[in-house]
Amino acid sequence: MTRDILDINDFTILVEEANSNKVTTDTCRFDEPVIAVALYGSGNVHMSMEYGNKQREYEHTKGLALSFYADEHVDCVHTVSAEKPLQCIVIATSPKNLEKLPNNEGELFAELLEQLVKPSDSYVEGPRFFMTQEMQHIVDGIFKNTYKGKAKMMFFRSQITALLSHFFWQLSTLKEDKINKVERKKLYEAKEILSNNLDTPPSLTELSRQIGLNTFKLKKDFKELFGVPVFKYLQNERMTKAHDLIRKNEATVQEAAWHVGYDSLSSFSNAFAKKFGFRPSEIKH
Length: 285
Hints:
The protein contains ten helices and ten strands. By secondary structure, the chain is an alpha+beta fold. The chain folds into two domains: 2-174, Jelly Rolls (Sandwich), CATH 2.60.120; 177-282, Homeodomain-like (Arc Repressor Mutant, subunit A, Orthogonal Bundle).
């Protein structure tokens, strides 16, 4: 488990990463009441917020942007396993700091996260959505950075500011009520199926049949909820997985290509370069 804690203006930033070959739990608690945004990377870890005799669980965290209020009685519990490592960024501030935040950020919190500014319980869930491709790219970059010292602080400051900007813009345009809860659950299931079958993904028709949603609704609402078309999401997942395998020395370039469903090394290399701007052979370990 690695946890970087940084103070930027009146925000506390937690960057947490954990891997485990067996099922383990990691619990953390805030020292004071906070309003926070949690952004999850590629791990899809299980998370629960526990307070008193209450509990709020989150099964589909990969790519999730979750806003919440939590006081010092709330335990945030992540369950980590080999299949579900933890990648989480938490941007938190105390409610008493809202008026001091620069660039009218406090007004954004009060306007778009009103239920968190005036909480009704120890834990209150605010708006949540799955990150846009731009947000996911920033989160991935934070976990892959190798900066040290002052350069690292400068990097984090710029990236966290960008993430908050994207987050509040998405909140201002969010129309989640277009998709009812039943259909949203089916779309989460579709996302999970694609993530678990990168090497042999189902066709659009097969995926539609598996989740019980017609192909038109699947294509339309998947893009509405997750910000990218179905197979653009699949392609992003394939390349991200391959990048991680190669970077961590867990696979050669050829093995990584096979792992994410490519028989042709040249096709894989071209797709990889299109996403990242460099060839897989150029990854620095």
